Amino acid sequence: MKIISEEIVKIEFEGTETKAKKIIYDFTGITSVLANISGGKTLTIYYIATKVRDNYVSCVLSFWNNDTITKNGLAPLLEEVMKLKK
User: Fold this and answer.
1) CA distances from 7 to 3, 50, 70 (A)
2) Residue 8 · residue 32 · CB < 8 Å
3) pTM for the complete prediction?
4) Could you give the CA distance from residue 51 to residue 34 in angstroms, rounded to a whole number?
5) Which terminus has fewer CB within 10 Å in the chain: N or C?
6) 78 near 63, Cβ under 8 Å?
7) Comparing C-alpha atoms, which of 35, 1, 12 is closest to residue 82?
8) Mind giving me the DSSP string for the chain?
9) What is the per-residue pLDDT across 55-81, written as a single tens digit (0 to 9) for each?
10) CB atoms inside a 10 Å sphere around CB 48
11) Sequence-separated (6 or more) residues with CB below 8 Å from residue 15
């Protein structure tokens, strides 16, 4: 597994504007064989920690490059809880 890119991005999570760490991983070697079973080659992960509705939460949200991606750049399930900001 190797990191292709790593950046801090602005997002809206559950209606709260915050930032998330976005890391894209590439799978190579033996791990690549396991990842390719699902057809995925890269995994995009968002690490989030923020205050939502008076409670602090942290979560990890991810999707594979072969998932259905919306025009906003996220998998549909992720889009239910977060939005990318520009």
Assistant:
1) 11, 17, 21
2) no
3) 0.83
4) 36
5) C
6) yes
7) 12
8) -EEEEEEEEEEEETTEEEEEEEEEEE--HHHHHHHHHTT--EEEEEEEEEEETTEEEEEEEEEETTS---TTSS-HHHHTTEEE--
9) 999 999 999 888 889 999 999 999 999
10) 21
11) 52
If you count them, how many residues does the chain have?
86
Please give the structure tokens belonging to residue 38: 């699902």
pLDDT, position 29: 61
* Pairwise CA distance, residues 75 & 15, whole Å: 18
CA distance linking residue 13 with residue 25, whole number of Å: 22
Token digits of residue 39: 């057809």
Tokens matching residue 3: 């990191």
